# Entry
Amino acid sequence: MRRISMAVTTVLVVLSANAVAQDKGTLKVGGLATLEGAFTVLGEDSMRGIEVALEEAGYAAGGYTIELIKGSSDASPDSAIRAARKLVEQDEVAVLIGPLSGSEGLAMKDYAKLQPQTTFINGSSAAQDTTLRDPAENFFRFSTDGAQWMAGLGTYVVEEKGYKRIATLGEDYSFPYTMIFGFLSEFCAAGGEVTERFWVPIGQKDYGSIIAALPDDIDAIWVGLGGGDAVNFLNQYQQAGGETPFIAGSITVDQTILSQKGSAKQALIGTPSAGPQADSWDDPTWQAFVKLYQDTFPEDQRFPSPSLFATAYYTATKAMIEALNAVDGDLSDGQTAFREALSTLELISPTGTVTLDENRNGIANIFLTEVVEGEGGNLQNQLIKVIPGVNQTLGFPRDEFLALGEVGRDVPICN
# Structure
């Protein structure tokens, strides 16, 4: 009996030691998105993306229990940094996932350089220079940038749609500049011409003067507006009787717009676009993610299909989880092993395999799409073509691509 008792005690001690080794305690993770302002609906679905990934993993990774602490911004750089400072400096998160909007990302890159103890994994912010020029060593972007999102679209609208003379309309900040850069790089090379470029601030309410100024002698209007801005423009364009076809930036035909109430969104049917996902893609991994998203939230608390923002934040969170598991939660020495795991990760995301380049920016599939009416009258992006493995320099040698100049209102020149 004594031998049995001693054996049981030994087993219990071993099991207890193993449990201690596996239970590293709580790891604080920050989730930062636009939960205020014109992009609120985008931010809400971003948080759903984080929650789907964490619930799928049982809120655990690398031996840690994950505690999610949310931060809110309004798409302005100042608000994003205020929220990040609270998460990093007061809540002491080890990893921050976010931000959502383009200029927020540029500011976050600079803030990351001041906080080397924290790892930053981009949410959906897609301004080009967040990673292309002067990147931060502790900032990772698996979600690609806005120029990459436009891959294939410029050539398609010229060769297949016959749209050769266009005007453009976008919000006046870094992300739409980046999308137009990617789109025009192809469109102009294929023989397209831009007659005028219109820019509006985030939160624009009245589009009357813009609609009146749109030229008549064009084949299409490229529109790169998101959230409430896109809804306001579509409503007012319909009321004005506008009939010129659209070409859309990724955010203008996202589920955050296609799922809005009202008839104005019907003007988007037949609109070509490109972006980081396609609602109708029949790939099993994508379909499994869509079902997971749908099953995680009640129907009245989500979109029919995940927005690109939900997918981007899910992918960022999944990358964190896989890297933590790969290093058994080792965050020592300034998170060196964890960051190396992120840098070399071949992530099987809902939209295909994602790897990172030398600046820790994603190389991933891009999807050429067209808006159609799906089951139950829901609008969705119908897949036309997958453009595999698009990198940040759009296939150009890096030095040659950098020589094109920094994105801006008038870059690139269409010639």
